[in-house]
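Entry type: protein chain
Record version: 2
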Amino acid sequence: MVFKFLIFLFAFNSLIFASVDDSMYELKKDLKSKMFNKTDKKILKIAVLNFKDIGEDAAKSKAGEIVSSALSKHFINDKDFVFVERNRLDKILEELRLNMLGIIDEKDIKRVGLILGVDWLVIGEVSSVGNEFSVNARVANSETAEVIAASNINIDKEVLLKESSELYNLSKNYFNITGGAINFSDLNLKASSFGLEWRHNYSRKNYIKFSFKKSSNNSDLLDKKFISKWNIFDSVNPADDLYVEETIKSASSFEFVYGFVRKFIFNTRFKGEIGANFNMLSSKQNIYYVSGGSSMGTFNIPVSNDANYYLPGLNFGIGIEKNIFKSHLLSFDFKYYKLKKLKRDVSAGNNSSVLQNYIDKNINSKEISSDYLYLGLSLGFPF
């Protein structure tokens, strides 16, 4: 059920906000049609450079970067093209000191084309025309700098400015403080949880995150078993019936997460996450007589142990985030953690092997689902 809900929301999110993407898809289709009318190559190696911002509105909204990024996505998804990834392209342009220029001259086209080993470069500019941004794109031959295709499309200024304001307020790095609640339903553990996160936005819409979370100290009962003294015989029986009890003291998690953000309603962003995590549950184990007495010898009662359970797993999450105080980040998160099942490991301590064997057979042989839910808030500080 959780997975179906996640898939629905991811798909819903992709369908709602496609205005800029739709425009760039149409632009790519027109450029491709004109290119293939002038070349007999079946597969073309291509790169899209950042478009030049012309005018204050375009520069302030980083319109050139937004449209070139959206256009790049459509070339990437087209099997008729071999696309040079933006990260590699940006690095080379930075080395050539061309990354901030957007449009480049004939000499630069040849130089960039030679270094990248591409057949064609897509260049262009974005300018403000009334209530719209006009996007002009050209495809240039990397060997001759000849322009073989050109196209133009207009995008509603409000749509592009909205995307810019929602996505570009993200800083590169955030230090997050988190707080929320966890619920291990099968382990009878419900507790508050606090943590720290480092988030790196490596593009406008994608990020990675490392986090550590720890629950508050608890004494939630995991299990309590009654053992009749007549079931345990090692030369003698125990002095009385026994209880074997284990409580969960705390839960900790270390996580590595990949996430994406998309614009949502009311100047918020929808985000989806998937990651790997390593969890540790700390417990307290007690073995004691029902009567509360003690004994020495074959049966050394009471017994008290501290134990840790290590549980790897995966996590899936969705959330809504919003910039506050301009660049700080407030986020509401819901996550599902799918963990390895917990296999009990209750120790009888320095005690009768018969008692330990009984515990192994009747308690430690059982596995319990350790999946859990997390619901919380986080506040991010840019740095």
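Comment: The radius of gyration is 30 Å.
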